[in-house]
């Protein structure tokens, strides 16, 4: 049977046959919002149905910094979980170097992953030509979400670019509604910043910044000016706010817009709202913008426990199987990682993402281009600029030195 079409039942049977019924799988992840929890439950339910025991270890903290710290400490300390979530890119490079992860090459070959995954995504997942992680979705962090009813009430045109969003936000101000819901945490501020960067200078400026580490041009300066302009549309409750609470403000009509990855769509789905009816979306860089490759993988630390590797590989196969890809991603807000599943029924926002993939409009993200250390330092510099009156020249300098770390 073609691996693409292997049914969920077949995968589940294989799990049982492999002795997964005896297997306890402890899975570390950072999916604690309503939409995220509903999405991971799809995996947990399928694993449980196969007779396995799913032990859920969610570590709160959007963006996952806290979860990754727990994972690193436990793995280095000799008490690894069965599986752990990371983003694409360089976050798990260190633990590979330490020899702490199993490689998944045999199941990747068997499952034809090289064929299933678009080339740029393959490159984002593989390290030194090997699969140490199973990719499960494609997220794009550079989305903008809006409440359609509120915009109509304010007489604002639905935007498709950041420039148009500023016009709409002025109208929302006019009716006394918070125009922009931002969660004031470094990683969220940085998402808004990168959205503005793409809107200002597209792929070229993005690569100049994160690949060439060059912040000297007028495009970067303009990005800082526009980013600062956003601050005038944010409510006083923003500092420290979790991302999903910012999404809830848009869902409940307390704010017009949020700039956030499409995991926010999981919250709209969880609240039974429909894309194109209750809420709208556009990509921060405009309709033709490249899709910065984001999303999630699971890695599987080596374990001394008997049969652990068998269960780990079966879990990986389950996660990337066609039926799970549909079930999981519909809840998560992301799009399936494999190109051979039926996506025709996905919503209008997902269709825009699928079109970007089809056209190869994919961009290596900062997670791939920067070490976690440099990325963290850059985000700290962005946050400092956002939360203070720091002069633009000083911010450019500190962002430049962060990138070069
Ligand atoms: C991202 C991750 C998403 C979502 C988000 C908010 O890093 O890729 O799946 O969980 O963080 O926590």
Detailed description of the structure:
The protein has about 400 residues and is an alpha/beta fold. The chain has 2 domains: about 5-140 and about 295-360, D-Maltodextrin-Binding Protein, domain 2, CATH 3.40.190.10; about 145-290 and about 370-405, D-Maltodextrin-Binding Protein, domain 2 (3-Layer(aba) Sandwich). The chain has 19 helices and 11 strands. A 5-stranded mixed sheet has the order 2-1-3-10-4. The longest helix is centred in the middle third of the chain and has 25 residues, at about 185-210. Beta-D-galactopyranose (GAL) binds near residues 87 and 263.
Please tag this protein with its features.
49% helix, four-stranded mixed β-sheet, globular, five-stranded mixed β-sheet, alpha/beta, 11% strand, 405 residues, D-Maltodextrin-Binding Protein, domain 2, 2 domains, binds beta-D-galactopyranose
Number of helices: 19
Helix content: 40-55%
**Spans of at least 5 consecutive residues with low confidence:** 1-5
Name every ligand kind in the structure. Answer: beta-D-galactopyranose
Shape, please?
globular
Characterize the largest beta sheet: strand count, sense, and whether it forms a barrel. Answer: 5 strands, mixed
Sheet-strand content, in percent, reads 5-15%
Task: Give the neighbour order of strands across the main sheet.
Answer: 2-1-3-10-4
Query: What is the count of structural domains?
Result: 2
Examine the secondary-structure arrangement and name the CATH architecture of the largest domain: 3-Layer(aba) Sandwich
Average pLDDT rating: 94
> What is the straight-line distance between the termini?
49 Å
Q: From the alpha-carbon coordinates, what is the Rg to the nearest angstrom?
A: 21 Å
